[in-house]
């Protein structure tokens, strides 16, 4: 399987990239035969969703070159780990826009959450669960929610054994669900 670690925050000085890179390193170190790659939203050239045809009606056929490229990027993966902060009790708007641009590319695939924030980003993930369900993804039960008090020191990401265990639980379920889907496909 090919699994993307999708970093969804793009602001200057963000923690998202550091957390995503750490997660990628952890996942690759599992040596489980699956391929893990990073998609950093800050490195993607995307527009705001302005297409006349809603992605749910487009069936994967887009007119906008940037959306076509984004579609190619996302559809190459069998599963995802969304690295999501919590902004105003939800996911970042930029990340939601990137998600909304597509539909069939996400459909049917497993998605796990690695969230962070004062309260671990739990409210962002609660919203994400509704969003990903809406396009027919398979959200995992395991969830790695990193509260600043427990996984950061002096406002810097400082992963410990518990951080790694939380991510590992997501990885185990992602691989299990993903392999089941591949077999049944
Ligand atoms: C616009 C904005 C809103 C935020 N709202 C919340 C919030 O509702 N709950 C929370 O725990 N943290 C909140 N935070 C703090 C972020 O979770 C924290 O800054 C985190 O590092 C953001 O991720 P990033 O560094 O990858 O951008 C907010 C931050 C921003 C920029």
Automatic annotation (TrEMBL):
By its UniProt entry, which InterPro entries does this protein fall under?
Flavoprotein-like_sf, FMN_Rdtase-like_dom, NAD(P)H-dep_reductase
Which EC class heads this enzyme's classification?
Answer: oxidoreductase
Tell me the ranges covered by the NADPH-dependent FMN reductase-like domain, including all copies. 1-147
Lineage, top-rank taxon, reads Bacteria
Q: Which GO terms describe its molecular function?
A: FMN binding; oxidoreductase activity
A cellular-component GO term for this protein: cytosol
Identify the Pfam families for this entry. Answer: FMN_red
**What parts of the sequence cross the membrane?**
none
The UniProt keyword set, sorted, is: Oxidoreductase
EC numbers for this chain:
1.7.-.-
What is the protein name for this chain? Answer: FMN-dependent NADPH-azoreductase
Tell me what organism the protein belongs to: Corynebacterium comes
């Amino acid at each position: 399987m090919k699994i993307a670690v999708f970093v969804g925050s793009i602001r200057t000085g963000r923690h998202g990239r550091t957390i995503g890179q750490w997660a990628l390193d952890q996942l690759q170190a599992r040596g489980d035969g699956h391929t893990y790659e990073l998609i950093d939203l800050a490195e993607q050239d995307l527009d705001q969703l302005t297409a006349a045809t809603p992605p749910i009606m487009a069936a994967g056929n887009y007119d906008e070159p940037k959306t076509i490229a984004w579609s190619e990027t996302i559809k190459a993966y069998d599963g995802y780990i969304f690295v999501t902060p919590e902004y105003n009790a939800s996911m970042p708007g930029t990340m939601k826009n990137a998600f909304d641009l597509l539909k069939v590319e996400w459909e049917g695939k497993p998605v796990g959450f690695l969230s962070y924030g004062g309260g671990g980003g739990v409210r962002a993930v609660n919203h994400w669960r509704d969003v990903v369900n809406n396009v027919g993804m398979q959200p995992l039960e395991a969830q790695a929610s990193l509260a600043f008090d427990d996984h950061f020191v002096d406002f810097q990401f400082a992963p410990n054994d518990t951080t790694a265990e939380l991510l590992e639980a997501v990885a185990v379920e992602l691989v299990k669900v993903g392999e089941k889907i591949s077999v049944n496909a």
